[in-house]
Structure prediction request, 462 residues.
Amino acid sequence: MEKRTLKELLVVASMLFGMFFGAGNLIFPASMGQMAGWNLWQASAGFLITGVGLPLLGVAALGISREDGLLGLSSRVGKRYGLFFTCVLYLTIGPFFAIPRCATVSYTVGIERVLPGAGQTVGLAVFSLLFFGVVLFFSLRPGEILTWIGKVLNPLFLFFLAILVVRALVSPLGNFAEIAPSGAYASHAFSTGLLEGYNTMDALAGLAFGIVVVEAIRGLGVKEPGQVAKRTVYAGIFSSLLMALIYVLVTVVGAQSRGMFDVASNGGEALAQIAEHYFGGAGAVILAATITVACLKTAVGLVTSCGETFVRMFPGGPSYRVWAVVFCILSFLIANVGLDAIIAYSTPVLMFLYPLAIVLILLTLCGKAFHNDRVVLQWTAGFTAAAAAFDFLRALPEGVRTALHLDPVVGLADAWIPLASQGFGWICPAVVGLLIGLLVRYIGGKKNPTGGEKAVPSQASL
Prediction:
């Protein structure tokens, strides 16, 4: 690879990492480290699968498919399914949950600890207004996203993060090998780590950000589809390796902190305790800067991705600038509901969307084996969606489940669907749907070997 090409690829990879890695990506591994204790490595293995492996596969799937975005990729199952899945996914990682979470996490973990205790409601409103004003400024210049995130915001974030992590590793607060695990990490560290990786939303973001990466690579003068696909995959690999390294380091730092602190209520509080221990009052400022920059760059990437996608989905509708303004305003309003409410209601949606995203990614990567036949895709996605609906119901807040009398339904699913009580009830139905789809394709193939209209054109994959 030429030196200039490698440099450009690293900038794209830095941009992709910057869009992926928000404050939640710091909070969840820190909390996991504190709770996992000496089971840190098993928990980290699970977390890396869903927090790093799936996002990488998502970017790779979009690149290999040579589709222009998630809508084209998911529409292989069916046009209505593609529109539904794309809208729900982008709204989830966009203005309904992930973008508002960027502002509330920045304020709760960083700014709130710097400001006086009174008037926090007004403080959040003022901060989120300023936050989304900056996000909108960057988002209205999507052509410059490679520069803003890849060359400015991401290096700044890594600088602040390195100060905290290096200091903690040089002078550890304790030996995590001596820390007993707590909660579910005591008996199910690996599977608990897998589910913890859902909270990063990165597998969903991998599918969503693919369009931004593809456009950035094309903007560098790469036009041939095969080369665009190859460089998209390479950028995904580089960014994933950096993510994995930071996840492991932050998890270790969180586990070591148990030598001095009890398990914090959340990863943000854990990071705040660590920062204050090493740097005193300055630690709060360092943490606030780290968290705010991390959330800012992620929010910019999300608004840009959502805006560009909705323009493509509704070509006769509002312009990109209008979508960007609408998403920022909506995110501002939801952010002021509060972090606890956002997390409580995002979890059920993630439990429903993640299985659909995982199945779509894997079927895309293995599409050559069944010629991307739509029948196989539809049977697998249908069975997965039906089972994931029970995971959605189970993850609803307890008060909502009780009010809607859903506990008997959830109990029935736990009793009859394998792995349902662990949050993986979709796996067996997905396999059954795949087998049925392959069988139907095999039977239909004897009558029509080409697959007729049911098959997706083979040039859609490498």
Observations:
- The longest helix spans residues 281-313.
- Residues 3-349 form a domain with the Amino acid/polyamine transporter I fold (CATH 1.20.1740.10).
